[in-house]
Amino acid sequence: MNAPRLSADARREQILDVAIDVFGRAGYFGASMNDIAEAAGVTKPVLYQHFDSKSDLYRALLEEVGARMLAAIAKATANCHDGKEQTELGFQAYFRWVAQRHDEFMLLFGGSARHDGEFSSQIRQITDEAAAAIAPLITVDIDPEQRQTLAHALVGLAEGASRRLVGLGKDFDPDDVARTVSGLAWAGLRATHRVNGSSAGHPG
Amino acid sequence: MNAPRLSADARREQILDVAIDVFGRAGYFGASMNDIAEAAGVTKPVLYQHFDSKSDLYRALLEEVGARMLAAIAKATANCHDGKEQTELGFQAYFRWVAQRHDEFMLLFGGSARHDGEFSSQIRQITDEAAAAIAPLITVDIDPEQRQTLAHALVGLAEGASRRLVGLGKDFDPDDVARTVSGLAWAGLRATHRVNGSSAGHPG
DNA sequence: CCTCCGATCTACTCGCGGGTAACCTTCATG
DNA sequence: CATGAAGGTTACCCGCGAGTAGATCGGAGG
């Protein structure tokens, strides 16, 4: 009555979908394979036909979700003219993603993955990539290490705002939030340019 | 041979100390009570003489560590004259705490606690308090909800920077980092004042 | 209608880890 | 040197959840 016998590929996709939700809510350790199977309307062995292990499934999820988020940001900032626009559109794309995919946000940044060495490197890879997109907006006069740290700080900026908004439970206007947060971020980024005064010369 | 029979109070303190380290490294689920007992040089039942359960122990840790961090920041910013100084000294106290207590940082922000409803509210309480200290630095012209979100974003700013620094493994100069990050933060905070132009009137 | 194959389920194994009952050890004290 | 209380240990119970072996179902092709 529930699962009308899907093809292997379709079942795999469905499991991934459902697992994002379940893991997103309960975390890696809080959700059992049985929970996920039940939520998908099947039984455990079906999961193991598509994924070698619980951690394998989780890895796949992190990869897919991380790629989706980064792609959304990359696409939005693809043809930006200046740093300000890139900052605004980047944050906008990010908060839109959070707003419509609470579960995906929780999966990546809910924290379940952060510890386990196995997953933490995967999460780090994602945040590293996000930071790499931000780093060029910071003055070159600064020590590269500090620049990286600042870039990661700005990733945290978005994460901190999102955590609160998602935690509140109710929906929010991502564009509103993006305007406010990116306003703060861009002002901060420009301040890093004061040293060599390059902030005055932006085109557009 | 190792643990020369401590008094109950001393043992309790030692367990807390050791548990910060073990949980900080492995996370709540990654560390077993046996691990902690072994690290403390005792056996499991001793833990249960001092704490009702694993979660009880963890709760106690979060409380102690959270209070310690907030107290450090509060003390540093107790007699500040203006927002800029408060921002600088607050971040400085925070990054000093991170620099000398990697394990405590990992315990609070490593992510283990973030999911489990039981602990997540405790973590949230801590970040809420930190955000409450930041919120007054943001213009009153903004919607209170947005102000709260911005405050939490700035908490995330510090967290994001710390996560990278701690993740690198090597030591860092907290005052250096604090200068850079608080510079960005303060510039961002001032930008929120542009709306009503109140940024010009600061004393000092 | 048979049959074969892939999707699915029932019904297990098994180890890990939280938690505990009962016993041992050390030492201050009369 | 008895004694008892506080600190500690050994050796266990037990449930949960990851992972699996083997039976069952259901539809496409002969």
What does this entry look like structurally?
The structure is a homodimer of 204-residue chains. In chain A, helix 1 crosses helix 2. The relative contact order of chain A is 0.11. The radius of gyration of chain A is 19 Å and the shape is elongated. Chain A has ten helices and no strands. With 204 residues, chain A is mainly alpha-helical. Residues 195-204 of chain A have low confidence and may be disordered. Chains A and B meet through helix 7, helix 8, helix 9 and helix 10 of A and helix 7, helix 8, helix 9 and helix 10 of B. Chain A binds a DNA duplex (30 and 30 nucleotides) through residues 3, 5-8, 11, 32-34, 42-46, 48-49, 53-54.
List the helices and strands and how they pair.
Two copies of one chain form a homodimer.
Chain A: H1 8-26, H2 33-40, H3 44-50, H4 54-76, H5 83-100, H6 102-109, H7 112-115, H8 117-134, H9 144-168, H10 174-191
The structure holds a DNA duplex (30 and 30 nucleotides).
What's the SSE pattern of chain A?
Answer: HHHHHHHHHH
Quote the beta fraction of chain A.
Answer: under 5%
Number of strands of chain A: 0
Q: Number of DSSP helices of chain A?
A: 10
What is the approximate shape of chain A? Answer: elongated
Helical content of chain A stands at over 70%
Could you tell me which chain pair has the largest interface and how many residues each side has?
A-B, 48 and 48 residues
Q: In oligomeric terms, what are we looking at?
A: homodimer
Q: What is the radius of gyration of chain A?
A: 19 Å
Task: Give the terminus-to-terminus CA distance of chain A.
Answer: 59 Å
Poorly predicted segments of chain A: 195-204
Q: How much is the average pLDDT of chain A?
A: 92
**Helix-strand makeup class of chain A:** mainly alpha
Question: What is the makeup of the main sheet of chain A?
Answer: none
